[in-house]
Amino acid sequence: MSENSPRTTGLLAGLDVFVGGPIQHAILDNGNGFVSHLQDAITTAIDLVKENGANVFSAHVVEKFGAETAAFTPEQVSVRDFRWMKKCDVFVPVLPVLDDETLRRTDGTHVELGWATALGRPIVIITKQPFVDSASHLLKGLHRVGAVQVIDFDEFTEKPSLLVDAVLAATDNQREAIGASLVA
After folding, report:
1. pLDDT by residue (tens digit) across 77-97?
2. What pTM did the predictor assign?
3. What is the pLDDT of residues 29-54, one digit of tens each?
4. Beta carbons within 8 Å of 61's beta carbon, 6+ residues apart
5. What is the distance between the alpha carbons of residues 79 and 139, in angstroms, rounded to a whole number?
6. How many C-beta atoms lie closer than 10 Å to residue 139's C-beta?
7. Rounded to an integer, what distance in angstroms lies between the CA atom of residue 109 and that of residue 95?
8. Distance CA 94, CA 140 (A)
9. Residue 55 in 3-state DSSP?
């Protein structure tokens, strides 16, 4: 299913979901592949929201999990991802934790978190909970300035349907907020 042909049935039918996460810093050092557990988690998120009727925007799919990242210029990636952010109904970043209990570097995803917050997009973060010490204050406090929900990474891998519930809650809350602002 392409970006332009959303499904019309399913719990998430009619929603545009932008799934993000590390790419450049998740390509294996030998250049042959992507960190497998992260690829599995992102693929699960993408497949789950698609199966539930949502239209998915994903650089991971377009760039074939890093295999074709070099085919895109920084300008193309910035324009594409910002267009997706403006169009999406919810942003779902996957923020994995390394064995040393630090967040895997993902500069682009953090920029996207800023865009999502500034544009008023609901966010459903998939990451280890509680936040690891290396997570910035801005990430840990983002829920104070934006509509942010967090799903524990391990809980998500055990029960992916948590994502569908969170996306539904995030978009319902967004619709309620819009409705309340129209009445005020």
Report:
1. 999 999 999 999 999 999 999
2. 0.90
3. 877 799 999 999 999 999 999 999 99
4. 46
5. 23
6. 20
7. 8
8. 15
9. strand
